[in-house]
C-alpha cells in the first residue's frame, strides 16, 4: 500500500511517498486474516501523520505494528516494512551540488506476550560503484606495461547496490543520512546523477585507488557501524547486503551478513 508521509527531522521536513508491507500471524485454527483491518491500520496512522508529521519512518512503522495487534486480537505478531524514495544533496569531487536518490527502509515488529514489545530498525539502500581488485592484480602480473606502475591500474567496474539495516533500540535515534554516509564510504566510490568530464575522471581515479570486492564492502560497512555506534547494545541486530552488477560477467556478485553487534565485537 502506498501513502504520503511527512517526517520531521532536526532542521528539515521530508515529504515521502512510502510503500507499506504489513503482516500478522494466525492461530492454527483460523483460516485467514481480516485483510481490511491491515489497510485500516495503515490508513488511520498515516492519515494522522500527514497532519502531524512523525519523527521518523521507523516510528511510523512502530505505531502501525501496534495498531495491527489492536485490530487483530488473535495475532501474536504484527510486522511492518516501509520503504520510500529519498533525496539528499551531495557534492561531487569537483564541487558540483546535486540531489541524489536513495531509498529509506524501516521495519517494526510488535510482539504480544505478557506485555507488548516492539523492535524497530532503520535502513538505507545506496547505489555506488566498485572496482575489481582481481582483474587489477592480473593485469599488473601479466602485462609488462603495467608491472612497474605504482598505484592503481586499469580494471573493470560494477554498479554496486548496498543496503544497511540497523536495529534502533529504545532511546536511540539513528540518522538515515549517517547510514548513507557509512555505505558510500565503504564502496570504491559514490556515484552521481550529473557529471562533467573533470568529475568523471576524478571518480574513476578514486574508485581504482580503492578496489573492492562485494565482501570487502560488507566488511567495511560493518566496521564503520561498530565505530559509529559504540553505545548501541550488543543485542542490536544489523544486516548488510551488497550486490555488484558485473560488467564482464553474465552474473552478479552478492555478499550478505546478518549479526548482532555483540557477535561483531567479539574478539
List the keywords.
8 helices; Urate Oxidase; single chain; 9-stranded antiparallel sheet; 34% helix; 267 residues
Helix and strand layout, with pairings?
Blueprint: E1 2-9, E2 12-24, H1 35-51, H2 57-71, E3 77-91, E4 97-112, E5 116-131, H3 133-142, H4 144-147, E6 157-167, H5 176-186, E7 189-190, H6 197-209, H7 214-228, E8 237-245, E9 253-260, H8 261-265
Helix pairs in contact: 1-2, 5-7
Question: How does this model look, in words?
Answer:
With 267 residues, the chain is of the alpha+beta class. The protein has 2 domains: 1-114, Roll (Urate Oxidase), CATH 3.10.270; 121-267, Urate Oxidase (Roll). Helices cover 34% and strands 37% of the residues. It has helices at residues 35-51, 57-71, 133-142, 144-147, 176-186, 197-209, 214-228, 261-265; strands at 2-9, 12-24, 77-91, 97-112, 116-131, 157-167, 189-190, 237-245, 253-260. Strands 1, 2, 3, 4, 5, 6, 7, 8 and 9 form a 9-stranded antiparallel sheet that branches. Helix 1 (35-51) crosses helix 2 (57-71). It starts with a strand and ends with a helix.
